[in-house]
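INTERNAL TRANSFER SHEET
From: sequence group
To: structure group
Subject: Exodeoxyribonuclease 7 large subunit

Please process the attached sequence and return the structure record in the designated field. Keep the field labels unchanged so the import script can parse them.
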Amino acid sequence: MNEKRQVFSLRQVVASVRKTIEERYQSLYWVKAEMHKLNLYPSGHAFPELVQKEEGKIVAQINGSIWKHNLQRINQQFMTVLKEPMKEGSTLLLQVRVSFSELYGVSLQIMDIDPSYTLGELQRERQETLLRLQQEGLINKNQQLAFPMLPQRIAIISADTSKGLSDFMKVLNQNQFGYAFFTHLFFAYLQGDAATESITRQLKAIEKVRHHFDIVVIVRGGGGEVGLSCYNNYELCKAIATCPLPVLTGIGHSTNLTVAEMIAYRNAITPTELGEYLLQVFHEFSVPVERAVEQIQRASRTVLERTNATFSQTVKQLKSTVQTNLLTHHNKWSTLSRKLNAKSELSVQRQHERLKFMQKDLTTISKRFQLEKMTYLNDAELFLKQNATKTVRKKSEEMDVLQRQIQLLDPKNVLKRGYSIVRMEGKSVAASNSPKAGEQLDIETYDFKISATIDQVETNKND
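Return from structure group:
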């Protein structure tokens, strides 16, 4: 119980640990680890967190350090081999020295990183993404969509400062054919760790308003082949494959297509090339339409010319026929008119002469009758003188009656009472010259002389 204790200071302990580590770990070691966080400081140094995961859980963790000059050299190697700088979440092959600090404990001083190993890891990720998509039947899903005849409404996933976006819009807006496009920008990061989640989120947003668009395009540019590994990410590629609209990419990559480009409906090396493809789609539609319009116009002109010629010829023939028919009918009517006038004049003349004869006969009869009556009157006067006033008055009344009868027998007075004289061929109509339908009648009234044609004849049954 009274043994003297040996007590060390903390500094002595950590110094001993440091000495032990330095003596034990004098070499450089190649270590495979995931860079969980880079932790880049303004000084240019980086102090990454390195981890090892098994089944998604961290089973080992240690801090590292990369001095500024080493970090610049390593990043240059990554840019040369991978076309992008180091990024968090990557599995790396690190050349490290085990170091110990009395203040910060054990850490790994990173001397170098092999980008070729990371390239292999990226290729492995690429192959794993392709295999998963193939197993799930998504490799050709987007390519099997029907492409719109005129992809006029375009949802663009890009950054508003991207040169690729500028090049793409320039091709669409300044096309010489006057094709009009409606575009809407959905902002997203285009490279690095943030690109995967950003682009995927915008694809989901477009899906909600898909009825407003015909296609989706993802364009980037100005960065060469830098930062393209995100386009091999499974979640991003699945979002592209399952998008309900055709997805077209122009992400500026000339070799080793990313998975996103492979499963998209169509990919182009540059945004400019992608824009020119859309113009070509419009052109391939418009040229046949324009040719069809020209053919229809030519055919219409030909039909109209032929129709006009036929119509003109028909009009000429019709005009000639009408003129001939009019002339023929005019001649016929003129002949008939002359004949009718001649017959009418002759008939009127005959009737006039007949009336004159009748008038003479009536005058003679009247004079004779008057003479006879005068004789009778003279005798009567003598008788009256002889037979008193009464007899004179009686005879005077009889005289008046007779005078009225004479006036009534005058043909003019007969006609004046509404009677008419009907003759056929100058003769009175009687049983001896029975009239027939179609024959001509001459009718004389007090005011008129009329010519008529018989339509129907009915015989009176007189008792």
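Handover comment: The radius of gyration is 65 Å. The chain has a mean pLDDT of 84.
Transfer complete.
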